[in-house]
């Protein structure tokens, strides 16, 4: 194997093993920042040794063994001035019993427990939402600071500062490396799910930049969701979120054209939808509902996505059911954005006038004043009512509000279409 092949193998191993490695180390040293440093030290040693010695048969266990030895060296240096030599030797010997893990047990229950603990730590509410997202992608997604910055179109120093501050905050607040229990578990789980959901959404519909989608972020979120589902098999909302992401991701190949231009849901070639992901999503949805989570935040959204997935053609979509599901979601969240989506469903189920009435009621909502999808939806409903001049104005306003270049182009094209349609109507 050439040196380049070895480096590519090391990179692949690191992306797979680093979350488990950091999780296992954090359990030992009780410090996420220190655990990441120790893991990085092990990676450096691998980069020095593997090109000549070759990638070991069990690279994850090799990295953990190396990192644990570094941890023991660190403990020895820190405690040398505090304890007698005999006491220190006894402690080191106890630690050494864990140094060489059984390669066949590298994916055992303890590793799973460690990953779950790391998820709850990285997504702790003591951190800002932006910090939680960055730290989760760093520790559990295996992304570099550069990759996270590129994905979110944020300067690399900004991401680096968020991660450093997040680790410092976790240390200063002495956040325990554990899975919470009882009522705290529910609250903390919602934070974990929110972070995964935010990562997926940014990948599915990028808020800024030149690309309509960032598939790598969708893949990272899906992977984290699937891991969480395995670690929390009895939590319905976990399966609800996985169902939602699987079904949404199934449309990825149909959402953009040859040059990356957006293709809206009603115009997509459903033959390009990934049926395997749809089946996985419907299975996860069924599991969530059987666990009693049919009225959960993510399960309701997954049920809406399932209505689209089950329709062979756009005209076959069960819009009355979608409108009902959005009604239940609106009661649960009290979200104006959900109400905007319900307006779309009402317009499809009962005619554009029904949808427009709800949209007009939302125009005074302060949180939607600069939300580009409000004028976009209003423009679509007005166009269906043949009120093209008004629709054009709405699409132009939506284009001025979005920060995504692809979406802006699409909205301006729709405005131009309305202008042509208006001109063709005889006076």
From TrEMBL:
GO biological process: DNA-templated transcription initiation
Positions of the RNA polymerase sigma-70 region domain: 19-79
PANTHER family the UniProt entry points to: BLL0085 PROTEIN (PTHR47756:SF1), BLL6612 PROTEIN-RELATED (PTHR47756)
Gene3D superfamilies: 1.10.1740.10, Winged helix-like DNA-binding domain superfamily/Winged helix DNA-binding domain (1.10.10.10)
Domain DUF6596: 188-288
InterPro entries in the record: DUF6596, RNA_pol_sigma-70_dom, RNA_pol_sigma70_r2, RNA_pol_sigma70_r4_t2, RNA_pol_sigma_r2, RNA_pol_sigma_r3/r4-like, WH-like_DNA-bd_sf
GO molecular function: DNA binding; sigma factor activity
Protein name: RNA polymerase sigma factor
NCBIfam families per the UniProt record, alphabetical: sigma70-ECF (TIGR02937)
Annotated ranges, domain RNA polymerase sigma factor 70 region 4 type: 119-170
